[in-house]
Amino acid sequence: MSLNTQALTSSRLARRVLSSSLVEAAFTPHGVDRYIEMIDPLWSQDEIRAEVTDVERKTSDSVTLTIRPNSNWQGFKAGQFVKLSVEIDGIRRTRCYSPANSQFRKDGKIELTIKVDPNGLVSPWLLANAKPGMIVQVSAAQGEFFIPLPHPRSILLISGGSGITPVMSMLRTLTERAYIGKVTFLHYSFTENDVIYRKEIEEIERKYEGVRIIRAYTDADNGDLQGYFSKEHLVAADKHYAEAETFLCGPMPLMNAVREVFEAEGLSDRLHLEQFAAPTRTVSTDDAEGRLTFTASGTTVENNGQTILEQAEAAGLNPDYGCRIGICFSCVKKKDCGTTQNVLTGELESDTDVNVKLCISRPVGDVSINEL
User: Fold this and answer.
1) CA separation, residue 260 to residues 158, 234, 264, 339 (Å)
2) Are 67 and 133 found together in one domain?
């Protein structure tokens, strides 16, 4: 596709014309998107499509995608996440990832660093198959995990593993905008080689006097701290932590350990967190009964008390999902009849013809779900 063709389909006048009801009617039944994407794969009236422009494998178990979104993209706040959709074996798969770049990046591109889950589907596929020129779909930015305005005078960033990505976006955004407050960044990894942005973090530390980096390694002794998070680590990182606004993202053991310390100190209101791991369920599976029917495929299984998503996968079905923790809405499907229960809150939903999140809903008795 030439730059002139792309400019033509992306201009404001072209978008108004191609989005008009007259043009839409002329392209029935497939719609204008189906035809325009043949010459401009990024074109869509309302979807955010993006071209992968660069692929980098910073560590052996991560892949960094730089993507150029179309004009439907409206930007993000550092710390928020997007839903990335790719087609694998003819099926669209969606997962949640946080941009790692500054929210003020001048070229408008988005950087997504994805830690590979060896038991997952999308992340191993991206590690093996992502390449420049590939077209993906992203959602609008979502989430309430971002630094408020006006910025606090003291900020403590804590991350572990792949949780570095939203925190890295915060750090890049703050330094790019010449933030004059104090930033302490405490990051946990197995070893030095597992720190995805190690070289850039070192450069930021040298360049910005107000930024202090604390490296904690759980499997090596050459970091600033060794082992897992504790109150002693917190004090060593920032002895004035009680005065800072703290932003946390990482694996659940780290999240829980930090949360326990802040709750014990009465500082829960100063702790802001993002998480993509399953939170603790409040509902037992001991009282499972009834049958779960997936009406679109005609599949019926005996209810075992697990979430509808887990039971669908066990039955060989492949409903779409993103976060698996009830925050991204990728797995929302219509419940035709029956009662479901939110496994996080215990709340029951007995109305018919309502949408439920498969990843955090379990059947209570006989339930029918339209999984398409």
Assistant:
1) 14, 12, 6, 35
2) yes
Structural domain includes residue 285: no
Cβ atoms 355, 335 nearer than 8 A: yes
Q: How many domains does the chain divide into?
A: 4
List for the chain the helix, strand, coil content (%; round to 5): 25, 30, 45
Domain that holds residue 297: 291-370
**Measured distance CA(17)–CA(15) in Å, rounded:** 5
Instruction: Give the pairing of strands 82-88 and 62-69.
Output: unpaired
Q: Which helix (H) or strand (E) holds 188?
A: strand 182-189
How many residues are there in the chain? 372
pLDDT digits (tens, 9 = 90+) for 264-277: 999 999 999 986 55
pTM value > 0.90: no
DSSP string, 293-305: EETTTTEEEE--S
pLDDT reading at 19 higher than 70: no
DSSP 371: -
Task: Select from 135, 164, 144, 157 the least CA-distant residue to 65.
Answer: 135
25 and 128 assigned to the same domain: no
**pLDDT band per the 50, 70, 90 thresholds, residue 99:** very high
Residue 139, domain CATH: 2.40.30.10
- Mean local confidence (pLDDT), 130-139: 96
* Tokens matching residue 211: 């930024």
CA distance 206 to 200: 10
Tell me if the bond preceding 29 is cis, omega within 30° of 0: yes
Cβ atoms of 227 and 216 closer than 8 Å = yes
* Contact (CB, 8 A) for 112 and 97: yes
Residues 39-49 as b/e (b if ≥16 CB within 10 A, e otherwise) read ebbbbbeebbb
Residues 71, 177: one domain? no
> What φ, ψ does residue 145 adopt, rounded to 5°?
-95, 90
Q: Is residue 167 part of a domain?
A: yes
In sequence order, what DSSP letters do the residues of 215-228 get, joined into one string? EEESS-SSSSEESS
User: How is residue 88 written in tokens?
Assistant: 């694998």
Three-state DSSP class for residue 177: coil
Can you tell me the distance from the alpha carbon of 117 to that of 123, in angstroms, rounded to the nearest whole number? 6
